[in-house]
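Quick entry, no commentary yet.
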Amino acid sequence: MPIQILMPALSPTMTEGNLAKWLKREGDEVRSGDVLAEIETDKATMEYEAIDDGRLGRILVPEGAQGIRVNEPIALLLAKGEDPSALEELTEAPTKATPAVTREPERAQHSPVQAAPAAQPAPARGNGRIFASPLARRMAQQAGLDLGAITGSGPQGRIVKADIESAVLAMKGAPTAAPPRPATAPLQLAVAVAPTPLALSKERVLALAGNPPYTERPLTAMRRVIARRLTESKQTVPHFYLTVDCEIDELLKFRTELNAKSDAYRISVNDFAIRAAALALRKVPAANASWSDEAVLQWDAVDIAVAVALEDGLITPIVKNADLKGLAAIANETKDLAARARAGKLKLEEFQGGTFSISNLGMFGVRDFAAIINPPHGGILAVGAGEQRPVVKNGALAIATVMSCTLACDHRVVDGAVGAQFLAAFKKLIEDPLTMLL
């Protein structure tokens, strides 16, 4: 039976993607590891590698197709020696199978009582091979699960992400279905009357705004993900904010001297901020942490995610081990990451993860602002513009270039005292930039 090649989940937040380009054509031989296509995710354009050997029998989704949901079939792969006539049996399968893939996890989440199914689909197998999506294979390998013992719920019994998640829950002893309860049970009553947020349909927003004239901009996958993740962050993460003013006259002088010494780098104020934040996190490791329901995870590495503005959103490429890199290395790396981010050419590991975030709007003249935490980070530092302000030095009024920096903290992880200690260490480094070279 032909193997269905499914739209992969190439990032944890990806629910749909665009098929930018096929790199194999119908009839081409395919080996495991070959690049089949280029997929546009919500953050970048990435290469999709084959996991099975065979011959590309039929392309179901053409180049340029948009909004293809994860786990939707995009092509059919013929196993070695398999007759092309087998393709006809699956001609209609993709359109019939797609709703089951997308709806099954939702039924499992929203139904408090699940009836036992009459029959379970058998695991999809062919020539001794188990059919599973690439994401399901990776998840099973990470969890130490045997794919042969898992029943697939995808098209033709293919094992998908939801099957692995159910198997992991079962392995941990978590209940997969709530026991039946009487109709008057308190839990069922709570579920029945739980309020749901009002949907912001276009018609509702127009009515609330008084129906003024407007121009419509279609929502991209990136904009949808930004909206969902930041709404979730503000609703579930208890933010609090601390602000410190840093005098940066010495830093600006030092920066000018460093940039005059070589054409191999161009250090910005933001590069100093990244370096200072990384060293401050090393000095105050309690601020370099994330919340989980089981424990606070204090990170051993200092990986700084730096917000980069794109035409239709933003992305946060990561400067890994920033505390171990000098200013010139950070400057060159951030320049390269930002350029490839705007071109949509970042690799997954270059923008997924990190332990702390920095957002700088100083180049736009913004004096100070409060950023939203990017989960699972425990904090994000918002860097404002350096501007001349009156200050008091030794009891006398003077003028200094001052940069305001605001730290947003996840109060579950970073308490006020910890946040204050981090900002004190950061301020000391910024105002005495020579110490960043030690």
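second:
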Amino acid sequence: MCSHYQLYSKAASFGADTTKGLIVGGGSAGANATAIVHLALDHQITVTRVHLSVPLLIHPKNVPEQYRAKWNAYEENKNAPMLSRESTVLLIKAYNPDPYNPLFSSLLWPTGHKAFPPTHFQICGLDPVRDDGLIFEEILRNECNMKTKLDFYAGVPHAFEGGFPELEISKKFVNDAVAGFGWLLANK
């Protein structure tokens, strides 16, 4: 398996021009791509844009004190369809991360988030990890003065668009992702 750096170093062979930067993104646990962004930035690799969909960004056992009052979805959405708190616990337990390791809990990144590039967020209201994304978006926008775009889907669960693609809100989610990438590409 290729490491991320090896893949980056071979980017030209894929027709990519890394001098223009990179867009990094992911959904759900894959939105922990924030750790890749932080590692890249810490090693002076240019990441110019980020897309985060229903991101899981903090271990439930290690929510920073200053954000605890805003981190309510884990309890509020404990019985949510698609991804309940119990399912979240089982998935995290299977992965078995160190709750204090910023590679899993990227809200804890030791060098902070000030260099984070413009970021598009897609967050579901009926999601136990809803507040991970909302808190990170607020950190980037308010504490770091970074550009963000937030698309919020009230009343729908984590990854609803994959389970129910025929719903209008699922189509909106997909269209918002496309529009979000357009925003990322246009944002300088």
